[in-house]
Amino acid sequence: MSTGLSVHIGLNQVDPAVYDGWSGELGACEQDAVDMAGIADAAGFDVTDPLLGPAATAETVTATLEAAAGRLAEGDILFLTYSGHGGQVPDLNHDETGDRLDETWVLHDRQLVDDELFELFGKFARGVRIWLLSDSCHSGTVARRLPEMLSAQELDRRFSTADPAEVGRRIRAMPQSVQSAVYRRDRDAYDRIQNTRTAKDRAKIDASVLRISGCQDNQTSADGIVNGLFTATLLEVWRGGAFAGSYRGLHREIVKRMPPDQTPHLFQVGAPNSAFARQRPFTI
Question: In what residue span(s) does the Peptidase C14 caspase domain sit (predicted)?
Answer without folding.
Answer: 19-266
